[in-house]
Amino acid sequence: MLFESNIIQFHVIVALSMELISDHLGITQSADFFRADNPEGVEARNEVVALAFEDMISWMQEGGQVGIFDATNSNKKRRNMLMKLAEGRCKLIFLETICNDVNIIERNVRLKIQQSPDYAEEPDFEAGLQDFKNRLANYEKAIEEGSYIKMIDMVSGHGGQIQVNNISGYLPGRIVFFLVNTHLTPRPILLTRHGESQDNVRGRIGGDTALSEAGELYRKKLANFVGKRLKSERAASIWTSTLQRTILTASPIVGFPKIQWRALDEINAGVCDGMTYEEIKKNMPEEYESRKKDKLRYRYPRGESYLDVIQRLEPVIIELERQRAPVVVISHQAVLRALYAYFADRPLNEIPHIEVPLHTIIEIQMGVTGVQEKRYKLMD
Protein backbone atom coordinates (compact mmCIF):
# COMPACT_ATOMS: atom_id res chain seq x y z
CA MET A 1 0.00 0.00 0.00
CA LEU A 2 1.27 3.46 -0.87
CA PHE A 3 1.00 6.37 1.53
CA GLU A 4 -1.59 9.07 0.87
CA SER A 5 -0.16 10.82 -2.17
CA ASN A 6 1.14 14.38 -1.77
CA ILE A 7 0.28 14.94 -5.39
CA ILE A 8 -3.40 14.08 -5.55
CA GLN A 9 -4.28 13.79 -1.85
CA PHE A 10 -5.97 10.41 -2.07
CA HIS A 11 -5.42 7.08 -0.36
CA VAL A 12 -3.99 4.61 -2.87
CA ILE A 13 -3.92 0.83 -2.96
CA VAL A 14 -2.29 -1.44 -5.53
CA ALA A 15 -4.22 -4.62 -6.41
CA LEU A 16 -2.06 -7.28 -8.05
CA SER A 17 -3.98 -9.76 -10.19
CA MET A 18 -0.79 -11.61 -11.22
CA GLU A 19 -0.04 -12.43 -7.57
CA LEU A 20 -3.49 -13.97 -7.29
CA ILE A 21 -2.83 -16.06 -10.40
CA SER A 22 0.15 -17.54 -8.57
CA ASP A 23 -1.87 -18.10 -5.38
CA HIS A 24 -4.93 -19.65 -7.01
CA LEU A 25 -3.58 -21.40 -10.10
CA GLY A 26 -0.01 -22.25 -9.20
CA ILE A 27 3.26 -20.42 -9.73
CA THR A 28 4.21 -21.70 -13.16
CA GLN A 29 2.02 -20.74 -16.10
CA SER A 30 3.35 -20.97 -19.65
CA ALA A 31 2.79 -18.37 -22.35
CA ASP A 32 -0.09 -20.49 -23.72
CA PHE A 33 -2.06 -19.67 -20.58
CA PHE A 34 -2.09 -16.01 -21.65
CA ARG A 35 -3.21 -16.54 -25.24
CA ALA A 36 -6.40 -14.68 -26.18
CA ASP A 37 -7.66 -17.79 -28.04
CA ASN A 38 -7.24 -20.07 -25.02
CA PRO A 39 -10.77 -20.21 -23.51
CA GLU A 40 -9.71 -22.08 -20.36
CA GLY A 41 -6.90 -19.60 -19.73
CA VAL A 42 -9.17 -16.62 -20.40
CA GLU A 43 -11.80 -17.95 -17.99
CA ALA A 44 -9.24 -18.63 -15.26
CA ARG A 45 -7.62 -15.22 -15.68
CA ASN A 46 -10.98 -13.45 -15.62
CA GLU A 47 -11.84 -15.23 -12.38
CA VAL A 48 -8.60 -14.03 -10.79
CA VAL A 49 -9.10 -10.52 -12.16
CA ALA A 50 -12.55 -10.36 -10.57
CA LEU A 51 -11.15 -11.52 -7.21
CA ALA A 52 -8.41 -8.87 -7.25
CA PHE A 53 -10.83 -6.17 -8.38
CA GLU A 54 -13.36 -7.02 -5.67
CA ASP A 55 -10.58 -6.94 -3.08
CA MET A 56 -9.64 -3.45 -4.25
CA ILE A 57 -13.25 -2.26 -4.25
CA SER A 58 -13.72 -3.58 -0.68
CA TRP A 59 -10.70 -1.59 0.44
CA MET A 60 -12.02 1.55 -1.25
CA GLN A 61 -15.41 1.12 0.41
CA GLU A 62 -13.61 1.12 3.75
CA GLY A 63 -12.17 4.58 3.07
CA GLY A 64 -9.64 4.18 0.26
CA GLN A 65 -10.00 6.57 -2.64
CA VAL A 66 -7.72 5.51 -5.50
CA GLY A 67 -6.99 1.95 -6.56
CA ILE A 68 -4.18 1.00 -8.96
CA PHE A 69 -5.28 -2.25 -10.58
CA ASP A 70 -2.09 -3.85 -11.86
CA ALA A 71 -3.12 -6.19 -14.70
CA THR A 72 -2.97 -6.50 -18.47
CA ASN A 73 -6.34 -5.02 -19.44
CA SER A 74 -5.44 -4.60 -23.09
CA ASN A 75 -8.62 -5.61 -24.94
CA LYS A 76 -12.17 -4.33 -25.06
CA LYS A 77 -13.71 -7.48 -23.59
CA ARG A 78 -11.50 -7.28 -20.48
CA ARG A 79 -12.11 -3.57 -20.12
CA ASN A 80 -15.86 -4.00 -20.50
CA MET A 81 -15.72 -6.63 -17.79
CA LEU A 82 -13.93 -4.22 -15.43
CA MET A 83 -16.32 -1.38 -16.25
CA LYS A 84 -19.23 -3.65 -15.39
CA LEU A 85 -17.58 -4.60 -12.09
CA ALA A 86 -16.96 -0.93 -11.34
CA GLU A 87 -20.39 0.35 -12.36
CA GLY A 88 -21.85 2.52 -9.61
CA ARG A 89 -18.87 1.90 -7.34
CA CYS A 90 -15.88 3.72 -8.84
CA LYS A 91 -14.60 5.47 -11.96
CA LEU A 92 -12.07 3.71 -14.19
CA ILE A 93 -9.05 5.18 -15.97
CA PHE A 94 -6.86 2.89 -18.09
CA LEU A 95 -3.15 3.65 -18.06
CA GLU A 96 -1.03 2.06 -20.80
CA THR A 97 2.76 2.05 -21.02
CA ILE A 98 4.44 1.38 -24.36
CA CYS A 99 8.16 0.89 -24.89
CA ASN A 100 9.76 0.65 -28.34
CA ASP A 101 13.36 0.48 -27.15
CA VAL A 102 14.45 -3.13 -27.74
CA ASN A 103 17.36 -2.80 -25.30
CA ILE A 104 15.11 -1.67 -22.45
CA ILE A 105 12.59 -4.40 -23.27
CA GLU A 106 15.33 -7.05 -23.27
CA ARG A 107 16.72 -5.82 -19.94
CA ASN A 108 13.29 -5.71 -18.29
CA VAL A 109 12.35 -9.16 -19.58
CA ARG A 110 15.57 -10.62 -18.19
CA LEU A 111 14.90 -8.98 -14.81
CA LYS A 112 11.41 -10.47 -14.90
CA ILE A 113 12.77 -13.98 -15.48
CA GLN A 114 15.31 -13.56 -12.67
CA GLN A 115 12.90 -12.13 -10.08
CA SER A 116 9.36 -13.25 -10.90
CA PRO A 117 7.79 -16.21 -9.05
CA ASP A 118 6.29 -17.17 -12.43
CA TYR A 119 9.67 -18.65 -13.39
CA ALA A 120 10.97 -19.72 -9.99
CA GLU A 121 10.64 -23.39 -10.96
CA GLU A 122 12.08 -22.95 -14.47
CA PRO A 123 15.75 -24.07 -14.37
CA ASP A 124 16.42 -23.11 -17.99
CA PHE A 125 16.83 -19.32 -18.14
CA GLU A 126 16.68 -19.14 -21.94
CA ALA A 127 13.51 -21.26 -22.01
CA GLY A 128 11.90 -18.88 -19.52
CA LEU A 129 13.08 -15.92 -21.55
CA GLN A 130 11.48 -17.26 -24.71
CA ASP A 131 8.28 -18.15 -22.89
CA PHE A 132 7.88 -14.62 -21.54
CA LYS A 133 8.54 -13.12 -24.98
CA ASN A 134 5.80 -15.40 -26.30
CA ARG A 135 3.53 -14.10 -23.54
CA LEU A 136 4.23 -10.52 -24.65
CA ALA A 137 3.40 -11.47 -28.22
CA ASN A 138 0.06 -12.91 -27.06
CA TYR A 139 -0.74 -9.64 -25.29
CA GLU A 140 0.18 -7.61 -28.36
CA LYS A 141 -2.24 -9.58 -30.51
CA ALA A 142 -5.08 -8.59 -28.20
CA ILE A 143 -4.40 -4.85 -27.88
CA GLU A 144 -7.27 -2.60 -28.99
CA GLU A 145 -8.04 1.10 -28.54
CA GLY A 146 -10.21 2.60 -25.80
CA SER A 147 -10.25 5.35 -23.19
CA TYR A 148 -6.72 5.72 -21.91
CA ILE A 149 -3.68 7.63 -20.75
CA LYS A 150 -0.89 6.21 -22.91
CA MET A 151 2.77 6.67 -21.94
CA ILE A 152 5.15 6.00 -24.82
CA ASP A 153 8.91 5.53 -24.34
CA MET A 154 8.91 7.49 -21.08
CA VAL A 155 11.44 5.14 -19.47
CA SER A 156 14.17 5.88 -22.01
CA GLY A 157 15.07 9.23 -20.45
CA HIS A 158 14.97 10.92 -23.85
CA GLY A 159 11.60 12.62 -23.70
CA GLY A 160 8.89 10.23 -24.79
CA GLN A 161 5.27 11.27 -25.10
CA ILE A 162 1.89 10.95 -23.41
CA GLN A 163 -1.35 10.49 -25.33
CA VAL A 164 -4.66 11.21 -23.62
CA ASN A 165 -7.98 9.95 -24.95
CA ASN A 166 -11.47 10.55 -23.52
CA ILE A 167 -10.24 11.70 -20.10
CA SER A 168 -12.22 14.26 -18.11
CA GLY A 169 -12.77 15.31 -14.51
CA TYR A 170 -10.63 16.73 -11.72
CA LEU A 171 -8.87 13.59 -10.52
CA PRO A 172 -8.10 12.20 -14.01
CA GLY A 173 -6.74 15.64 -14.90
CA ARG A 174 -4.45 15.62 -11.85
CA ILE A 175 -3.25 12.12 -12.73
CA VAL A 176 -2.41 13.24 -16.28
CA PHE A 177 -0.57 16.29 -14.93
CA PHE A 178 1.43 14.11 -12.55
CA LEU A 179 2.36 11.57 -15.24
CA VAL A 180 3.45 14.29 -17.67
CA ASN A 181 5.97 15.48 -15.08
CA THR A 182 7.43 12.12 -14.07
CA HIS A 183 10.25 10.06 -15.56
CA LEU A 184 12.65 7.31 -14.54
CA THR A 185 15.96 8.97 -15.32
CA PRO A 186 18.36 7.89 -12.53
CA ARG A 187 19.34 10.80 -10.29
CA PRO A 188 19.91 11.38 -6.57
CA ILE A 189 17.89 13.65 -4.31
CA LEU A 190 19.75 14.71 -1.17
CA LEU A 191 17.65 15.76 1.83
CA THR A 192 19.12 17.50 4.85
CA ARG A 193 18.01 19.76 7.64
CA HIS A 194 19.74 23.09 8.13
CA GLY A 195 22.66 23.24 10.50
CA GLU A 196 21.77 23.52 14.16
CA SER A 197 20.23 26.93 14.86
CA GLN A 198 20.35 29.07 17.99
CA ASP A 199 16.69 28.22 18.62
CA ASN A 200 17.54 24.50 18.33
CA VAL A 201 20.01 24.98 21.17
CA ARG A 202 17.34 26.72 23.27
CA GLY A 203 14.72 24.09 22.42
CA ARG A 204 12.42 26.65 20.82
CA ILE A 205 10.23 25.79 17.85
CA GLY A 206 9.88 27.91 14.73
CA GLY A 207 11.72 31.21 14.70
CA ASP A 208 14.26 32.47 12.19
CA THR A 209 17.53 32.57 14.08
CA ALA A 210 21.08 32.18 12.78
CA LEU A 211 23.19 29.06 13.14
CA SER A 212 24.88 27.87 16.32
CA GLU A 213 28.56 27.05 16.46
CA ALA A 214 27.76 23.45 15.58
CA GLY A 215 25.54 24.64 12.73
CA GLU A 216 28.38 26.74 11.33
CA LEU A 217 30.63 23.67 11.34
CA TYR A 218 27.96 21.56 9.65
CA ARG A 219 27.49 23.94 6.75
CA LYS A 220 31.22 23.70 5.99
CA LYS A 221 31.12 19.92 6.13
CA LEU A 222 27.98 19.87 3.97
CA ALA A 223 29.62 22.09 1.34
CA ASN A 224 32.61 19.77 1.24
CA PHE A 225 30.38 16.69 0.94
CA VAL A 226 28.21 18.16 -1.83
CA GLY A 227 31.28 19.37 -3.73
CA LYS A 228 32.73 15.86 -3.77
CA ARG A 229 29.47 13.98 -4.27
CA LEU A 230 28.24 16.14 -7.15
CA LYS A 231 31.54 17.27 -8.68
CA SER A 232 30.60 15.83 -12.09
CA GLU A 233 26.97 17.02 -11.92
CA ARG A 234 27.09 20.56 -13.24
CA ALA A 235 23.32 20.64 -13.76
CA ALA A 236 22.61 19.94 -10.07
CA SER A 237 20.83 22.55 -7.95
CA ILE A 238 20.43 23.52 -4.29
CA TRP A 239 16.94 24.18 -2.92
CA THR A 240 16.33 25.90 0.41
CA SER A 241 13.45 27.41 2.31
CA THR A 242 13.20 31.19 2.69
CA LEU A 243 14.33 31.05 6.34
CA GLN A 244 17.85 32.22 7.08
CA ARG A 245 19.04 29.03 8.78
CA THR A 246 18.66 27.07 5.52
CA ILE A 247 20.06 29.89 3.39
CA LEU A 248 23.08 30.18 5.69
CA THR A 249 23.58 26.42 5.60
CA ALA A 250 23.65 26.47 1.79
CA SER A 251 25.85 29.56 1.43
CA PRO A 252 29.29 27.82 1.39
CA ILE A 253 28.18 25.47 -1.42
CA VAL A 254 29.56 26.83 -4.69
CA GLY A 255 29.15 25.95 -8.34
CA PHE A 256 25.42 25.23 -8.27
CA PRO A 257 22.36 27.47 -8.58
CA LYS A 258 20.40 28.04 -5.38
CA ILE A 259 16.62 28.27 -5.38
CA GLN A 260 14.50 29.44 -2.44
CA TRP A 261 11.05 27.86 -1.98
CA ARG A 262 8.54 29.30 0.48
CA ALA A 263 6.83 25.90 0.31
CA LEU A 264 9.94 24.44 1.97
CA ASP A 265 9.56 26.65 5.08
CA GLU A 266 9.12 24.84 8.38
CA ILE A 267 5.64 24.02 9.68
CA ASN A 268 4.01 27.24 10.91
CA ALA A 269 3.68 26.98 14.69
CA GLY A 270 1.28 29.93 14.84
CA VAL A 271 0.93 31.42 18.33
CA CYS A 272 3.36 28.77 19.61
CA ASP A 273 6.22 30.08 17.47
CA GLY A 274 9.29 30.68 19.61
CA MET A 275 8.00 28.61 22.55
CA THR A 276 9.50 25.44 23.98
CA TYR A 277 7.32 22.33 24.28
CA GLU A 278 7.57 22.64 28.06
CA GLU A 279 6.15 26.15 27.87
CA ILE A 280 3.31 24.92 25.64
CA LYS A 281 2.59 22.10 28.11
CA LYS A 282 2.49 24.55 31.02
CA ASN A 283 0.63 27.46 29.41
CA MET A 284 -1.51 25.65 26.80
CA PRO A 285 -2.11 22.15 28.21
CA GLU A 286 -5.11 21.43 25.95
CA GLU A 287 -3.07 22.25 22.84
CA TYR A 288 -0.19 20.15 24.11
CA GLU A 289 -2.44 17.12 24.64
CA SER A 290 -4.21 17.58 21.29
CA ARG A 291 -0.88 17.57 19.48
CA LYS A 292 0.33 14.58 21.46
CA LYS A 293 -2.85 12.67 20.59
CA ASP A 294 -2.68 13.24 16.80
CA LYS A 295 0.45 14.96 15.48
CA LEU A 296 -0.60 14.37 11.89
CA ARG A 297 -3.87 16.33 12.04
CA TYR A 298 -3.10 18.71 14.88
CA ARG A 299 -3.00 22.33 13.72
CA TYR A 300 -1.19 24.93 15.79
CA PRO A 301 -3.49 27.87 16.65
CA ARG A 302 -3.19 30.28 13.71
CA GLY A 303 -0.64 27.88 12.27
CA GLU A 304 -0.39 24.64 10.30
CA SER A 305 -0.77 20.88 10.64
CA TYR A 306 1.32 18.18 8.97
CA LEU A 307 -1.53 17.74 6.50
CA ASP A 308 -1.24 21.42 5.62
CA VAL A 309 2.49 20.99 5.02
CA ILE A 310 1.86 18.00 2.77
CA GLN A 311 -0.64 20.04 0.77
CA ARG A 312 1.70 22.97 0.17
CA LEU A 313 4.54 20.66 -0.90
CA GLU A 314 2.70 19.57 -4.06
CA PRO A 315 4.53 21.99 -6.42
CA VAL A 316 7.87 21.06 -4.86
CA ILE A 317 7.21 17.36 -5.43
CA ILE A 318 6.07 17.93 -9.01
CA GLU A 319 9.27 19.86 -9.70
CA LEU A 320 11.42 17.20 -8.01
CA GLU A 321 9.78 14.56 -10.21
CA ARG A 322 10.61 16.64 -13.28
CA GLN A 323 14.28 17.08 -12.45
CA ARG A 324 16.79 14.96 -14.37
CA ALA A 325 19.82 16.25 -12.45
CA PRO A 326 20.58 15.88 -8.71
CA VAL A 327 18.88 18.20 -6.22
CA VAL A 328 20.04 19.04 -2.70
CA VAL A 329 17.07 20.04 -0.53
CA ILE A 330 18.02 21.95 2.64
CA SER A 331 14.90 22.38 4.71
CA HIS A 332 13.27 21.60 8.06
CA GLN A 333 12.21 18.52 10.00
CA ALA A 334 8.45 18.43 9.29
CA VAL A 335 8.94 19.29 5.62
CA LEU A 336 11.65 16.69 5.08
CA ARG A 337 9.58 14.05 6.85
CA ALA A 338 6.81 14.62 4.30
CA LEU A 339 9.19 14.64 1.31
CA TYR A 340 10.96 11.52 2.51
CA ALA A 341 7.67 9.71 3.08
CA TYR A 342 6.54 10.51 -0.46
CA PHE A 343 9.62 9.03 -2.11
CA ALA A 344 10.01 6.14 0.34
CA ASP A 345 6.30 5.15 0.22
CA ARG A 346 5.85 5.52 3.97
CA PRO A 347 2.30 5.44 5.42
CA LEU A 348 0.67 8.77 6.14
CA ASN A 349 0.32 8.22 9.89
CA GLU A 350 4.09 7.59 10.20
CA ILE A 351 5.12 10.94 8.74
CA PRO A 352 5.25 12.96 12.02
CA HIS A 353 7.47 10.29 13.58
CA ILE A 354 10.05 9.67 10.81
CA GLU A 355 13.59 10.17 12.06
CA VAL A 356 15.26 13.11 10.29
CA PRO A 357 18.14 14.10 12.60
CA LEU A 358 20.26 17.22 12.37
CA HIS A 359 23.58 17.13 10.53
CA THR A 360 22.60 14.07 8.48
CA ILE A 361 22.17 13.71 4.72
CA ILE A 362 19.53 11.34 3.39
CA GLU A 363 20.33 10.43 -0.21
CA ILE A 364 17.44 9.00 -2.20
CA GLN A 365 18.50 7.46 -5.49
CA MET A 366 15.75 7.57 -8.10
CA GLY A 367 15.91 5.14 -11.01
CA VAL A 368 14.24 2.46 -13.08
CA THR A 369 14.71 -0.16 -10.37
CA GLY A 370 12.94 1.92 -7.73
CA VAL A 371 14.18 4.02 -4.81
CA GLN A 372 17.32 3.31 -2.81
CA GLU A 373 18.43 5.18 0.31
CA LYS A 374 21.73 6.05 1.97
CA ARG A 375 22.30 8.14 5.10
CA TYR A 376 25.46 10.10 5.83
CA LYS A 377 26.04 11.42 9.35
CA LEU A 378 28.56 14.23 8.98
CA MET A 379 28.89 15.08 12.67
CA ASP A 380 28.79 13.15 15.94
In short, what is this structure?
The protein has a six-stranded mixed β-sheet with strand order 8-7-9-6-10-11, with helices on both faces. Helices cover 42% and strands 16% of the residues. It is of the alpha/beta class.
Written overview of the protein:
With 380 residues, the chain is of the alpha/beta class. The protein folds into two domains: 10-181, P-loop containing nucleotide triphosphate hydrolases (Rossmann fold); 187-377, Rossmann fold. 42% of the residues lie in helices and 16% in strands. The strands form three sheets. A six-stranded mixed β-sheet has the order 8-7-9-6-10-11, with helices on both faces. A three-stranded mixed β-sheet has the order 3-4-5, with helices on one face. Strand 10 and strand 11 (370-377) form a beta hairpin. Helix 2 (39-61) runs parallel beside helix 3. The radius of gyration is 24 Å and the shape is globular. The relative contact order is 0.12. This is 6-phosphofructo-2-kinase domain-containing protein. One of its GO terms (molecular function) is ATP binding. Residues 27-186 form the 6-phosphofructo-2-kinase domain. Keywords: ATP-binding, Nucleotide-binding.
Note the run of SSEs as H and E.
Answer: EHHEHEHHEEHEHHEHEHHHHEHEE
**CATH homologous superfamily assignment of the largest domain:** Phosphoglycerate mutase-like
Helix/strand class: alpha/beta
Second-tier CATH architecture of the largest domain: 3-Layer(aba) Sandwich
Tally of discrete structural domains: 2
The number of helical runs is: 14
